[in-house]
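I am still learning, so can you show me any protein sequence you like together with the matching structure tokens, please?
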Amino acid sequence: MSVRVGQGIDIHRFSEDPHRPLVLGGVTIEGARGLAGHSDADAVCHALADAILGAVGLGDLGRHFPDTDPKWEGANSVALLTEVVRLAAAQRFACVNADCTIIADTPRLAPHTDAMVEHLARVVGAPVSVKATRAE
């Protein structure tokens, strides 16, 4: 049995669109300013997908879902993560756990991390931890 570890990081600016929702870990955070991006800008799903791709040796998220391709505009990042899990499985790899840390000064994310954990664990098929902290 081969064990591999991947690491992913993703950063997005806040969107100038006041109506764009904030989606993190597949969870919409009501009343919060959304992130700018070609897809739904779910930085948690993006970082987790990059970690999986890196562990399996399949490059990064941009290689598989380039932001220059209009096909991915507004894409649901949970669907992208689901496809990455499928790509890993095709290489005979499966996640055994994932640990995610979100660094954000706003909004307060602690009330939403349990929902993110549940959602992401279903997608990757393994235990997931989600922690939120501020850049204090």
